[in-house]
Amino acid sequence: MSQAPKYKRILLKLSGEALMGEDSYGINRVTIDRIVGEIKAVLDLGVQVGVVIGGGNIFRGVAPAAAGMDRATADYMGMLATVMNALALQDAMKRAGIVSRVQSALTIQQVAEPYVRGKAIRYLEENKVVIFGAGTGNPFFTTDTAAALRGMEMGADIVLKATKVDGVYTDDPKNNPDAVRYQTLTFDEAIGRNLKVMDATAFALCRDQNMNLSVFSIFKAGALKRVVLGEDEGTLVHC
């Protein structure tokens, strides 16, 4: 089987919850190292990788205290949580021998570079992984939207959304054993069937800019590599 990747440059969206493993919050060392191993497998194919990371694993712990908090303030707290995750991911990559750079949409120069599009593209061209922290830098926008936005700014071939489920299904596969995975979907079909692929803003952004989207499970060994190789893994959402 050919090992030539289908995509040259990808934008990977990782949720903060993906870093928890089986823990209730925080970062699980074994889990983050395994995810880095999945990323390394596609880097070894010559694929350029940008990563947008969420913050739910950290912010979940303070969420009860944030109840009733001003929305913008809570969102900025969430952005800071994503920067913490970005630094943890960078450290895990360093242990694995991967060169990476963290760029933050919020200015925190002591710990991360500010986001500069041209510099980020140059890093990708140098085969460095770029980890984008702090979402879009604006409240009221999710890290899903940040992934769609950065994917377009970086000229990525596709946005890959890593989830706990290995694709988009006709129904919740946990509750309905007869649920069927879609191999491919159009954006209009996903909207028409009210399938929760990404949040509405991110989804509309991908559709309007003709940015393909793949949904797959980061917990399934080798799934990221199979998606990049163009094999039948996850669900491809296209125009």
How are the SSEs ordered, and which strands pair?
Blueprint: E1 9-14, H1 29-43, E2 48-53, H2 56-66, H3 71-95, E3 100-104, E4 113-114, H4 117-125, E5 129-133, H5 143-153, E6 158-163, E7 184-186, H6 187-192, H7 200-208, E8 213-217, H8 223-228, E9 235-238
Parallel strand pairs: 1-2, 1-6, 2-5, 3-4, 3-5, 6-8, 7-9
Antiparallel strand pairs: 8-9
Characterise this structure.
The chain is of the alpha/beta class and 239 residues long. It is 38% helix and 18% strand. The protein contains 8 helices and 9 strands. The protein has helices at residues 29-43, 56-66, 71-95, 117-125, 143-153, 187-192, 200-208, 223-228, and strands spanning 9-14, 48-53, 100-104, 113-114, 129-133, 158-163, 184-186, 213-217, 235-238. The radius of gyration is 17 Å and the shape is globular. ATP binds at residues 13-16, 56, 60, 163, 169, 172. Pathway: Pyrimidine metabolism; CTP biosynthesis via de novo pathway; UDP from UMP (UMPK route): step 1/1.
